[in-house]
Amino acid sequence: MSVMETTTGVSAEARSMAGSPLVWGVAALLLVYPLVATPFLTFQVGGYALILGTIALSLSFLAGYGGMVSLSQMSAAGLAGYVVAIFGFNSFGSGFGWPWWLVVPIAVLASTAFSVGVGLLAIRTEGIYTIMITLAIGVAFFLLAQQNYAIFNGHSGFAGIAPPVLFGLNWRDPLPFYYLALFVAAVFYLAVVYIARAPFGLALQAIRDNPRRMRALGYNVTAHRVAAWALAGIAAGFGGVLLVWFNGRISPGTIGVDRLIDILVIAIVGGTRRPAGAFLGAIFFVLLDTYAINVMGAERFNTLIGVLFLAIVLFSPDGLLGLWEKARRSFATRGSGV
Amino acid sequence: MNFTRGTLLATAGFALAAHFSAANAEDTLKVGLMVTLEGAFTVLGEDGKRGAELALKEHNGMAGGKKIEWVVASSDASPDSAVRAVRKLVESDGVQIVVGPLSGDEGLAVKDYAKTQPNVTFVNGTSAAADTTLRDPAPNFFRFTTDGAQWMAGVGTYAFEKKGYKNVATVAEDYSFPYTQVFGFMAEFCKAGGHVVSKSWVPIGNKDFSSVIAAIPADVDAVYVALGGADGVNFLKQYQQAGGTAPLIGGSITADQSVLSSQGKQKDAVLGMPSAGPVADAWDDPRWTKFVADYKAAFPDGFPSPSLFAQGYFVNTKAVLLALDKINGDLSDNGVKLRETLAGLEFDTPTGPVKLDKNRNGIALNFVTEVAEGADGGLFNKVVEVKEAVNQTLGQPEDEFLKLGVVGRDNPSCP
Lengths: 338, 415
Prior knowledge:
The complex is a heterodimer. By secondary structure, chain A is mainly α. Chain A is about 75% helix and about 0% strand.
């Protein structure tokens, strides 16, 4: 594909960013976090947020840089999870029992193919119609998984799925799992940062802003968009593999409508203008999901979650990222006034 | 890029604060309560929570000399969310005892999780899948209630002999608990000579039953319906609208208060519907009437009569409290004594005596009921038969029962 050949160098801006001490600070914090946190915070808060962040990143990449909001990213991730369960081991004994190094690439390939397929359909539409068609595909896949017993084992899905024991480490243990999730998240975060500033990403953003002009300039608009869907499928696929290892099971509940919307909420609340937003949104979402019941009690905790999400979107259309930048800007102007 | 660090620190701080605030005081004991407070089963989960609270209230909030405090975790009835909820209770809130969960697949998932936490004691809520205790049980999972097949004890025979139904179609939700209910019904009904000519499985939260209703053969004597909460109400309404006239046989949660107390024309359809379950609203036993009176006094905004979810959570919570009393609240041995005490516990509940079998599954009473109209126009389950000491193998020898195979969509079958 001609568009990929042009992705050669990192822009000067990105290179200067990589040298920023604040970036290293965040990286250090993420690396040290599991050493000070409890296993629960490491695994179920940290690990889970990184997984959801990776899946949401695939959405915010498509939405932020491609202008295509996809609700089927969780479905792509779920498909990867199902592939892991079906081709690997599960407690029903119905898995093929293939080793992880074979199963994981197949899973990611499946989710990438799924994402490309969805993309081929969705790029014929614009805006809200893209959301609708991806939602329709997501719901259709959920219902298929729920009612198909031959492949997806229906409502029960699969249980007893575990990551491999490798290098003497059980990768399901909180610490190794967290670092695995962090590694995957970091790879995709950096990939998105890189791509956003590479010629391919710049062309994608230009297509988002004015596809007709880009077409007139000789760019293959369809190929660029489909390539973006493929990349999103890869990220969602790895996210899905981690998710099924995290839960140890997969069932239609994992890819239900609520979960599809969760991913959208994470991306929107975090802010889709930069890749960090997806992870910020995921951390916020997981913390609320886990601890709102402690703050609010059992009857009203979902109200608290809803109100907070509403407030963020209301006061900062650009999500948590926008909120942070707004605060920073007002702080900077006040500082310079003194 | 410098925007993430501060936020991360702030959120991490929030999480840590929430974690440490959950630390135990000396004289209080935190017990995890896992109920479904989201999704299709919310109403049922709320009643389960009432049952657990009522049991604790009867014990004056104390057990084994310690003040008992609930730590509530909510699921949406999916196994993923159940495991996340129970993991939070055990690993973050640090509870040593968990009461719950509510529904079948959740129970199977929590059993699997229980095996990874041998020092934590898990006591069921109302989840009623057979294999939570029947096959490959976890040694630290206890169920003082009965399973979905036990809940059907008596109704298969009753429908065949007393009602004279020979050919029946079933409509049930598509997951482990209704499989178990259909299994329990068919175990008796098929043995008596009846035939189940068609089975329809519908997803939880299904809104449109038209294709299911169309698939019910016209010449059946009755339709066996095992649908819970809103699903049951929706089916009954649409079945009537479609002109369905076959009499109904109810699963345990079809004939539950959540369905009986809903308004509308489907009331007429359920009148005279036989069903069976671990509770019967109108049982005139003083133990039960006292329980109903206590429930009504404690929860004026609850159901007119406690549902089996309230009863299930009540019974299992009571078992925990009684066992804690016996060991003086001493959990310093990682709950070994607690689990020994629980395994041998026999006590009287609002629905009669209960004890455990060797797989730690309840052996208890079961009621065959028929929906009748009360003097006030409200519907209730009239008791027509009380089955005593129903065990998990429904009175059959264990090896014979296990030979029937794993409960599923196609097993058993008697077309």
